[in-house]
């Protein structure tokens, strides 16, 4: 890899680690930090570097996990490693290979919904957390509610990644001049 790619990947990894660590410590911004960290994962795409993005994804996530004190109770790291860190890279790969939208959208929807169900199972089934203060209607229909919310959030997140990618490329091009 070229030194420019390594440098931008290191900067991206540092921001990812910082943001994920903040999300692990400050509970009320954890979902916000997961989404924000994915914006930094795609910085190396300016140089068309998938290796740089994967480096930023892995190193940033691992360093963030170490700095958080191996916080397995936070929703930040399972969400980041299962979907939010990887999806921008896969989305760009699909876009570069010119994969049709009728293939990419269902793949993304199924992947995101499976991630949400997996996190739900992890925290309720494995960790033993309960949501007993929620109304009975919501508890009985939790899987359907999660599916509906997942579909809506997926489309918002997909558009967010697209816009961030375009804005990032524009500003990095200005900075390069």
As residue ranges, the low-confidence spans are none
Termini separation: 22 Å
User: How many strands appear in the DSSP assignment?
Assistant: 0
Total of DSSP H or I helical runs spanning 4+ residues: 8
How would you describe the shape? globular
Helix-residue proportion: over 70%
Biggest β-sheet: count, sense, barrel?
none
* Overall pLDDT metric: 91
Topology record:
Elements: H1 3-25, H2 30-41, H3 50-67, H4 76-84, H5 87-96, H6 101-126, H7 136-140, H8 142-176
Describe this structure in words.
The protein is mostly helical. The chain has one domain. Helix content is 78%, strand content 0%. It has helices at 3-25, 30-41, 50-67, 76-84, 87-96, 101-126, 136-140, 142-176. α1 (3-25) runs parallel beside α3.
């Amino acid at each position: 890899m070229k030194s420019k790619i390594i440098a931008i990947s290191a900067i991206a990894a540092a921001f990812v680690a910082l943001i994920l660590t903040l999300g692990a410590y400050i509970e009320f911004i954890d979902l916000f930090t997961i989404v924000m960290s994915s914006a930094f994962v795609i910085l190396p795409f300016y140089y068309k570097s998938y290796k740089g993005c994967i480096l930023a994804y892995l190193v940033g996530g691992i360093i963030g996990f170490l700095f958080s004190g191996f916080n397995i109770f936070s929703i930040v790291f399972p969400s980041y490693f299962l979907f939010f860190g990887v999806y921008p890279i896969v989305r760009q790969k699909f876009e570069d290979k010119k994969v049709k939208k009728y293939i990419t959208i269902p793949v993304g929807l199924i992947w995101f919904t499976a991630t949400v169900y997996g996190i739900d199972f992890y925290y309720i089934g494995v960790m033993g957390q309960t949501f007993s203060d929620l109304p009975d209607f919501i508890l009985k229909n939790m899987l359907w509610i999660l599916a509906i919310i997942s579909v809506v959030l997926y489309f918002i997140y997909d558009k967010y990644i697209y816009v961030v990618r375009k804005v990032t490329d524009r500003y990095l091009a200005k900075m390069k001049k």
